[in-house]
Specification:
Blueprint: E1 2-3, E2 7-10, E3 13-18, E4 24-32, E5 37-44, E6 50-53, E7 56-59, E8 64-71, E9 86-94, E10 117-127, E11 136-138, E12 144-146, H1 152-225
Parallel strand pairs: 3-10
Antiparallel strand pairs: 1-2, 2-4, 4-8, 5-7, 5-9, 6-8, 9-10, 11-12
Length: 226
């Protein structure tokens, strides 16, 4: 545990199990070992790379506070897996009426008669844990025993499973596509039938209208002559 005049910090080195394209988080525990209220602030040499929550806060006397440091997803791995990033934890005694909105950068400026406690925190990359192998090797008595190396059979099975899933997905999508095409064709046929029916009805109505007009004309002519 790292010890300052006001705070104990655990750990003093953040160890991130590095993985590409993945956010990784580590936690810090801050312990107030005084009878005072403490205001703290966390700084880093690479603020775009890390998200610190909370990065400022107030710790009650003889209390603790957890801080989560999240490293943003990285697209490239450092060639030597070394990290030069650092964090600086500053703390200062404050009054019981201090709120988060009262915490400013000026509070932690070093001035005569003011005690600003500082604890430096290193950053390191560690290898991410690998899942155990389920592969078996041949033992001396001819039986199968667990071994650290993968066999061709196990490798083939691992490759076969994604292929089977992909083929099943392609088959399902093909069926859905064919079903959609059939429904689309059926819909077009129904629309065409409705269009023809409407055309017939319109044609019948026009013919009847002509017949009625002709009959009315004959009747009017007959009445006029009479």
């Amino acid at each position: 545990m790292g010890s300052g005049d006001l705070l104990d910090v655990e750990p003093l080195e953040l160890k991130f199990p590095f993985e590409l394209n993945k956010q990784i988080s580590c936690s810090l525990q801050l312990s107030n070992k005084t009878e005072d209220f403490l205001a703290f602030k966390v700084k880093t040499t690479n603020p775009r790379k890390y998200c610190v929550r909370p990065n400022v806060g107030i710790i009650l006397p003889r209390s603790t506070c957890d801080v989560v440091v999240t490293m943003q997803a990285q697209r490239e791995a450092p060639s030597d897996m070394q990290c030069k990033d650092k964090f600086l934890l500053q703390s200062i005694a404050t009054s019981s009426t201090t709120t988060l909105n009262d915490i400013t950068q000026e509070m932690f400026s070093k001035e005569p008669g003011k005690t600003v406690d500082e604890v430096k925190i290193q950053v390191a990359y560690v290898s991410s844990p690998q899942p155990p192998s389920n592969v078996y090797e041949q033992s001396e008595d001819g039986g199968a025993s667990p071994g650290p190396f993968s066999s061709d059979k196990a490798s083939g099975q691992q490759q076969k499973e994604p292929e089977e899933k992909a083929m099943a997905l392609i088959s399902r999508l093909t069926e859905e596509k064919n079903s959609a095409l059939q429904q689309n064709s059926k819909l077009h046929q129904e629309v065409e039938l409705m269009r023809r029916e409407i055309g017939k009805r319109r044609g019948g109505f026009s013919f009847m209208s002509l017949v009625l007009i002709a009959l009315l004309a004959v009747l009017v002519g007959y009445l006029v002559k009479k």
